[in-house]
Design brief:
By secondary structure, the chain is mainly α. Helix content is 73%, strand content 0%. The chain contains ten helices and no strands. Helix 2 crosses helix 3 (28-44) and helix 2 (14-25) packs parallel to helix 4. The longest helix is centred in the middle third of the chain and has 23 residues, at 55-77. It is elongated, with a radius of gyration of 31 Å.
């Protein structure tokens, strides 16, 4: 295939390639960039095209692979590699750096009220706030699930009553 024939076939596919690029990117400008990048790669890889094979499939494959490679590159660029000894950057959330003194005081007050509770109320409540499911708490403390639910409910009610000043 001559260079002229190759270029003509590629240009004749422009509308279909552009629609395919738009279906991949969902953004008209990004689709145009992908189309242009596909053209550059196809033209520079002309010698790799095997004559009498499916030219359209070859061009679509170039576009799809380009899209996938660009996506992977974007994901890699957004990945943070923390090489500090104690993984400081991964363990330090943005929210943690914005803690206000009054919220620290409120947290201590709330914690003081929770610590003052009887163990039979405090333990199921703390387990629940740590993410345990009712069934897990019941199994671990050898209680019925209804007992666990009522203790957590009464603990919340008791805390809301004693912490009225902190209500929104």
């Amino acid at each position: 295939m001559t260079t002229m024939e190759f270029n003509t076939r590629l240009i004749n596919m422009e509308d279909r390639l552009e629609r395919f690029a738009l279906s991949l990117t969902s953004d008209r400008e990004a689709a145009k960039d992908l189309l242009q990048e596909t053209y550059v790669k196809a033209l520079s890889s002309k010698d790799k095209f095997i004559e009498f094979t499916n030219f359209e499939a070859w061009a679509y494959t170039i576009m799809k692979n380009t899209f996938i490679n660009n996506y992977r590159k974007a994901v890699r660029q957004n990945t943070i590699v923390d090489q500090t000894e104690d993984l400081y950057y991964l363990n330090n959330t943005k929210e943690a750096t914005n803690i206000k003194p009054d919220s620290t005081y409120q947290h201590k007050e709330i914690r003081k009220h929770i610590d003052a509770l009887q163990d039979e109320l405090k333990i199921p409540f703390l387990m629940h706030t740590e993410g345990y499911k009712y069934k897990e708490i019941a199994d671990k403390l050898d209680l019925k699930i209804g007992t666990v639910k009522s203790r957590i409910f009464f603990t919340r009610k008791k805390l809301m009553e004693s912490l009225k000043d902190y209500a929104n």
